[in-house]
Automatic annotation (TrEMBL):
SUPFAM superfamilies for the chain: SGNH hydrolase
Pfam families in alphabetical order: Lipase_GDSL
Residues forming coiled coils: none
GO MF entries: phospholipase activity
Highest rank taxon of the organism: Eukaryota
Protein name: Phospholipase B1, membrane-associated
PANTHER family: GH22081P-RELATED, PHOSPHOLIPASE B, PLB1
Listed InterPro entries: GDSL, Lipase_GDSL_AS, PLB1, SGNH_hydro_sf
GO biological-process terms attached to the record: phospholipid metabolic process
Length: 190
């Protein structure tokens, strides 16, 4: 666990000599600055769902999804309290949205654009992608054409640690894992 920073701590990146946000919306991913990212989202398994982040016992861990503290999409408090990708991006764009607000299940409002599920395998990613696209399109804050979106996808270790036991040929899991990720990217780009 990282130590909490004092409230007076300065953000460690010197932003004084660089432009944080582009003057116009970039049309090419190579032009995107951290401040240009308006939406953050996540798909995946327990690591993105924030399962058991501050649990003291295994029993607590199984039932606690601390999405607001998840490394990839947690937006609870700020970077001084919880060092997450979303909290870092909020330093560059205070209007960033989509990050999880606190402990919640994927179907609850507080999860925002975090559709990760505890125990998910790569086969679940296309369903998650469809749900995520629906949430983003239905959110009144979203400008699909002009908002840059950062979507983290973290799934696969459950495939290799659990699902692999059910295949006769261990290499099959690689084939299915790759196929599921391709389908996921295709759905997400719609």
């Amino acid at each position: 666990t990282l130590a909490e920073k004092p409230p007076f701590a300065d953000f460690p990146c010197d932003r004084s000599h660089t432009k944080i946000r582009s003057d116009t919306v970039p049309t090419n991913v190579n032009q995107v600055r951290p401040g240009d990212i308006d939406i953050i989202a996540a798909m995946g398994d327990s690591l993105s769902a924030g399962t058991g982040i501050s649990s003291a016992t295994m029993q607590q861990e199984l039932f606690s999804e601390e999405r607001g503290r998840s490394w990839s999409i947690g937006g609870e408090a700020d970077w001084k309290r919880f060092l997450t990708l979303a909290n870092i991006l909020k330093e560059f764009n205070p209007k960033l949205f989509g990050y999880s607000l606190n402990t919640s299940q994927s179907f609850q409002w507080e999860s925002q654009f975090n559709v990760a599920e505890n125990g998910a395998i790569s086969q679940n990613l296309p369903f998650m992608a469809k749900e995520l696209v629906k949430r983003i399109k239905n959110d009144k804050r979203t400008d699909l054409k002009h908002h840059w979106k950062m979507i983290t996808i973290m799934a696969g270790h459950n495939d290799f640690c659990s699902e692999n036991c059910y295949y006769k040929n261990p290499n099959d899991i690689l084939k299915y894992h790759r196929s599921d990720h391709y389908r996921n990217v295709e759905i997400s780009s719609r």
